[in-house]
Write a structure and sequence with these properties.
The longest helix has 26 residues. Strand 10 and strand 11 form a beta hairpin. Strands 5-4-6-3-1-13 form a six-stranded mixed sheet, with helices on one face. The chain has a four-stranded antiparallel sheet with strand order 10-11-9-12. It has a three-stranded antiparallel sheet with strand order 2-7-8, sandwiched between helices. The chain is α+β, with helices and mostly antiparallel strands. It folds into two domains: 172 residues, Ribosomal Protein S5, domain 2, CATH 3.30.230; 148 residues, 2-Layer Sandwich (Alpha-Beta Plaits), CATH 3.30.70. It is built from nine helices and 13 strands. It binds adenosine-5'-diphosphate and magnesium ion. Magnesium ion binds next to helix 2.
Length: 335
Amino acid sequence: MGERVRAFAPGRVNLIGDHTDYAGGLALPMAIQLGTTVEGHRTDAAAGIRLTSADQPDPVVLPVDVADPAAVAPPWGRYVAGVVHELRPVHGFEGAVTSTLPIGSGLSSSASLELAVALALGFAGSPRELAELGQRAEQVASGVPCGIMDQLASACGEAGRALLVDFTTMAVEPVPVPDHIEIVVVHSGQPRELAGSAYGERRASCEAAAALIGPLHDATLEDAESIADPRLAARARHVVTENARVRAFAAALTAGDLAAAGAAMYESHASLAVDFEVSTPVLDALVERLRATPGVHGARLTGAGFGGCVVALTDPGALREGWVVHASAGARLGD
Ligand code: ADP
Ligand code: MG
């Protein structure tokens, strides 16, 4: 038997800045304490990749030179195959996947799976390279032209800090999370639907807007509103104003100004709902219910939208539901 390996990669929650990553904008995600562990041993390349998951009935068995990751069965094997396809591992691997994350709920179990698999299979490179590999794997596996936020947050996580990410420069700046607050993720109960096709349309709209007014990273509100097509103008307005809200939120968090941070979260939700049209009545109602709850400073949908989760900034113990998450270290080998 070959060398024993254990790799862990965290999930993430995005505090603010959604649908900005693929538009070259800003976001403030953080890696969380929940994540995916891959444990096993390296084998001969000829033995291929063999993984079981405690959360899936069927194992994944793949050759190390897998040709078409999108065609792999069972479906969870596509994420593994995407990584194998990008990494071209020189060894085989036999092991097991376990997860403390809710799967398919918007805390990025998929990115966490990709990064844990990549580390277990021998990835050697920087956190940013790990994130880039995971993003390519995710795109190949899911067929969705997703941005890099999930993988970057999982790769670059730091205990006690959220990550202010600029997706044009790829700069990652840690922002301390005050310890007298709680960050709570509440599932809306609505599964994410239509996320794939609508996501592609939103991304294409942002690219069309940028072709008219230049990169949305540097565009002003006036630039966005100069676009004749009202739908494209609204999409651009979301990205431009969301970038400003990410900066305002990071400054408010640093200053401990929870009212200002919370206000930016509510404005972000409204922008995602009205200008970007990725919210749902269920998500809107959940944000309003949380807003009316004492001790809640802010709440917004988090992730791609169309169902899934809301993230709230609260006084400790204000909510008796959801997952209380803590800013945590990034993907790593060996614990
Ligand atoms: P999210 O990333 O928000 O949890 P996704 O729909 O992007 O939701 O990814 C969920 C998919 O990732 C699952 O359907 C499954 O294919 C795969 N996955 C995630 N975690 C695991 C795991 N522990 N074991 C097997 N497959 C997993
Ligand atoms: Mg995912």
